[in-house]
Design goal:
Length: 247
């Protein structure tokens, strides 16, 4: 059974088509890497999965149930948790309060308390900082907290959008360790990254997105050359940062 499936999804922003008939699936217990250059539509896939962007065509399935057009909370309740840019942590609330707020949304008080203790067991770094305002955590610690927040209900599948973006190598190690722990506990993962090396080592399948279209689906080994060719052919943000002056 597929934990998550997009079938021919077309979606965008107003008249702009960011995704054109995108199909991909994440089997139960599997890890799929979604990679591709900046602007390819990766975050739009994450938003479709979370119910924040509704497809104009195609379907979103979670555990085989059609949730196309469903509200974000219904998708979450169906077992899909998403860690998405801009949906992170409440800066003024403590680490524990952030987790309680999140767990309390779908668990009763006693189950939420159990989930909190389980989280602190799994994330000692967060346990040490449980009373600290989330806004004072480092970028990597905040990313770990935003990941921990969605795990209270033992989701069937987690969609993680650029968890490692801008983090130190040590913080990226922490994040990937937690993803492995999650996977070992039976959770399926759709891991979205622009930096491909790390995620292709973790995944058992890769999907490459380019300008809103699936350019490759297959083993991670096969994705690397496709991405390299693309990055060679496309202007990267770095190359745009220093425009060549006209002669
Ligand atoms: N809120 C938005 N409004 C309009 N266009 C958007 C919005 N978000 C993203 N886009 C456009 O959709 C395309 C895909 O963006 P995105 O999914 O963020 O790509 P990626 O995550 O792969 O970098 C880009 O061309 C981007 O400019
Ligand atoms: Mg993105």
């Amino acid at each position: 059974m597929n934990a998550l499936e997009l079938v021919g999804v077309t979606a965008g922003y107003g008249p702009y088509r960011a995704l054109d008939e995108v199909s991909l699936s994440v089997p139960d217990g599997g890890i799929v890497a979604l990679v591709g250059p900046n602007g390819a539509g990766k975050s739009t896939v994450a938003r479709v999965c979370a119910g924040l962007v509704v497809p104009t065509e195609g379907r979103l399935l979670v555990g085989g149930d059609d949730l196309t057009g469903a509200a974000p909370w219904r998708i979450a309740r169906a077992g899909l948790a998403s860690v998405i840019e801009g949906r992170g942590v409440f800066a003024r609330l403590s680490v524990a309060e952030n987790l309680e707020l999140s767990f309390g949304r779908w668990l009763g008080p006693s189950a939420a308390a159990t989930a909190l203790e389980r989280t602190f067991d799994g994330f000692p770094m967060l346990a040490e900082r449980r009373t600290q305002p989330a806004g004072t955590l480092s970028g990597g610690q905040q990313r770990l907290l935003s990941l921990a927040k969605v795990l209270g209900d033992s989701p069937r599948v987690v969609v993680a959008d650029e968890l490692s973006l801008g983090l130190s190598p040590a913080a990226v190690e922490d994040i990937y360790l937690q993803l492995r722990v999650l996977h070992a506990a039976g959770t399926a993962l759709l891991v979205i990254e622009q930096q491909t090396d790390r995620v292709l080592g973790l995944a058992d399948r890769a999907v490459v997105l380019d300008r809103g279209v699936v350019a490759f689906t297959g083993p991670p080994d096969g994705a690397s050359p496709v991405v390299r060719r693309m990055l060679g052919a496309t202007a990267t943000p770095d190359s745009l940062a220093e425009p060549v002056s006209p002669a």
